[in-house]
Amino acid sequence: QVQLVESGGGLVKPGGSLRLSCAASGFTFSDYYMSWIRQAPGKGLEWVSDISYRGTTVNYADSVKGRFTISRDNAKNSLYLQMNSLRAEDTAVYYCVKESGYDPYWGQGTLVTVSS
Amino acid sequence: EIVMTQSPATLSVSPGERATLSCRASQSVSSNLAWYQQKPGQVPRLLIYDTSTRATGIPARFSGSGSGTEFTLTISSLQSEDFAVYYCRQYNNWPPWAFGQGTKVEIK
Fold first, then answer.
1. B99–A102 C-beta distance less than 8 A
2. Predicted confidence (pLDDT) per residue in B31-62, tens digit
3. Which end of chain A is more exposed for a tag (fewer CB within 10 A), N or C?
4. CB-CB: which of B85, B95, B102 is closest to A33?
5. Whole-angstrom Cα distance, residue A7 to residue A96?
């Protein structure tokens, strides 16, 4: 069955960096666009970034452009999000999402807390 | 990039009453619109796709309508388990697959 397991979250000071990883299994990873979607405490869902099948096309929300970098390694069935210059407003649960039209598949999320 | 706008932000409804949630797209998404329900601590669950098709296991009290840029999710008779946050999302022009900001359905 499909599994997406995020890791790498934690507590970081403002201005710091974190790298999130998502290990995928149960499907042909390279056949799917992948996204990172976040949800701040008590807030709605916010699309952060997405990446095409082979990683040649990437997109970012304006709120993270220039600070975050999405990447993937199809040989390792893994998705990544490098987050630099973190701000308090980046505090959220970050979800790895397998995009498939109307029925995306979500990981369980990893919590990122940016605080001094 | 398509922007999805939901209204109202919060809807206060008594159990057994009808709830009507709206979603507007900044440009036409044809009928490629889905609705999701999210409860605290859970990931979103698919309710409706292709504007009006209920996902597997979704009760008939949930219905969707609309086309183009205006869409509606109706819950005909709210049950206790329906109090949650609802999101619309388009999948006509992607990426990104834009979400609305959500409507919280709370107990009146």
1. no
2. 999 999 999 999 999 999 999 999 999 999 99
3. N
4. B95
5. 10
Strands (E), chain A: 3-7, 10-12, 18-25, 34-39, 45-51, 58-60, 68-73, 78-83, 92-98, 105-106, 110-114
Q: Which of B88, B97, B99, B106 to mutate to test the interface with A (most CBs of A within 10 A)?
A: B97
Nearest-CA distance from A27 to chain B in Å?
Answer: 20
Chains A, B: CB pairs < 8 Å: 51
- pLDDT of residue B1 exceeding 90, the answer is no
Output the pLDDT for position B95.
Answer: 82
Q: Is B80 helix (H, G, I), strand (E, B) or coil?
A: helix
Separation in Å, CA of B49 to nearest CA in chain A: 6
Which run of H or of E encompasses B107? strand B103-107
Element (H, E) at B106: strand B103-107
**Number of other residues whose CB lies within 10 A of the CB of residue A93:** 20
Gap between the Cα atoms of A49 and A94, Å rounded? 11
